[in-house]
Fold Nudix hydrolase domain-containing protein.
Amino acid sequence: MAKACDNTSGGILIRKGEDILMIERKKNNFGMALPAGHLDGDTSGAGTARELDEETGLIADELTLRVEKILPNPCKRDGGTHHAWSIFEATHWHGDVRPSESEVKSYFWASPQKIKELSKKLEDFAREKKIRLIEDNLPSLVKETNEDPSWISHPGLEPPMYFLFKELKII
């Protein structure tokens, strides 16, 4: 039996100059994303900081809330039909990136150009699958990105991140 979803997720922006720390997920949902995950009963700030530490080994010393948004992105947990997202920016952080062996396939510092390329890859994928790239279609898009072998092996931007990055004016 799958774990119950609390329908809350947090993500964290870590910047190094103009570049943003991105991870490639090892399992659902496949794609390039900010360090992020379920809050599992924690406050949004505490849960997001915990996810950062779990996925990257970095410690957030100071967080600023940047976006709160509800998205209809599903997950594999029971009841995971949507998520209330909180995206923070770590204005101060420390440590060396040590990616989680169980959750993170790779990590990189993404330039603004690289983020545009990852976004375009998702846009092209959605067009190829004949899925209009709007929030209401996130369930279909997430399903396709979790099942398509070519996406899984060479993903672009994770679907929920696309809409969160638009809200953050990153893309």
